[in-house]
Design goal:
Strand content: 35-45%
Function: This is one of the proteins that binds to the 5S RNA in the ribosome where it forms part of the central protuberance.
Subunit structure: Part of the 50S ribosomal subunit; part of the 5S rRNA/L5/L18/L25 subcomplex. Contacts the 5S rRNA. Binds to the 5S rRNA independently of L5 and L18.
Organism: Paenibacillus ottowii
Helix content: 10-25%
Order of helices and strands: EEHEEHEEEEEEEEEEH
CATH topology of the largest domain: Ribosomal Protein L25, Chain P
CATH superfamily of the largest domain: Ribosomal Protein L25, Chain P
Shape: elongated
Keywords: Ribonucleoprotein, Ribosomal protein, RNA-binding, rRNA-binding
CATH class of the largest domain: Mainly Beta
Largest sheet: 6 strands, mixed, barrel
CATH architecture of the largest domain: Beta Barrel
Protein name: Large ribosomal subunit protein bL25
Structural class: alpha+beta
Radius of gyration: 26 Å
Number of domains: 3
Amino acid sequence: MSSNGGSIQLTAQPRTEKKGSAIRGLRLKGRIPAVVYGSEIEGTPVHVDAKEFNKVVKTGRSEVFNLAVEGGDTIPVIIKDYQQRDNQWLHADFLKISKNKPLRVRVSIDYQGIPVGTKAGGILQIQETEVEVEGLPSDLPSTIEVDVSALDIGDKLSASDLKLPKGVTLHVSEEELLASVIVPRAVEVENAAVEGDAAATEGAGEASENKES
């Protein structure tokens, strides 16, 4: 990976062999089999260096970068998808983009802060780590930050609570649950048992009073 005039560039080599044995051989050599596709371009098999790809992934899946295909063109792309298992990259999909055409992508949610409810025994339960948004490539954020420090026990965070950059819109329901602060199951059971004991004690006391009268 290199920086060319401020733009990140990743070098790719054409891939002609598509058999499983050839693909496994690429991975053993530290390469990732991939495909480049998009408007005005047929699906083109390539392979890239795993370490260099890892650096690009860290910048965010919505970040536009240049994919320089050896013997071919340099193409503006984003990482549309990838597969990973046991910390090993298996495959990647690069999508050619147009800088003047809106793009729909999934962006990571960066949860920041410690919910106030956790100080009272609650647990932050995260339902979604990504959200789908749409916008021009230059407007898309690499991550969406959200502060969860004000969440108390029972509070919920929905997609509508996210603050998006100008020109970027949600492509999920505003009611979609992203995170919440819940009471641990063990605490719920313990509270129910305490309430049950209290009710039983109160009932026994009333029965005793009625008997005496």
